[in-house]
Amino acid sequence: MISLLSSSLGRLRIIAFLEGTSFLLILFVTMPMKYFLNMPEGNKIIGTLHGALFIIYILMAFNVHFEYKWKFTKTTWKVLLASIVPFGTFWVDKNVLKKIV
Known about the structure:
- It is built from 5 helices and no strands.
- It is mostly helical.
- The chain has one domain (8-100).
- 21% of the residues are buried.
- Helix 2 runs antiparallel to helix 3 (41-67), helix 2 (8-36) runs antiparallel to helix 5 (88-100) and helix 3 (41-67) runs antiparallel to helix 4.
- The protein has helices at 2-5, 8-36, 41-67, 72-82, 88-100.
């Protein structure tokens, strides 16, 4: 974990994991709680956290894009698209980001 914190790419990988996890929590835990159990509190908390992580993820993706001189058509679009697809950030970590390290 310490080695991941030493580079912007490593920090992006950590944020990708957190963002993806928060997205899955919203989809499979807090949304069913909100609509089936009439308990919206969890959705508000996790939703706010996910929103912040999403913004950080996008900003860090562009930061890494410029630092590593990625081509938008080859790498960056995959990283950005991954943030809106369930399980996407996990896929992009395994198939894109991990190979760059």
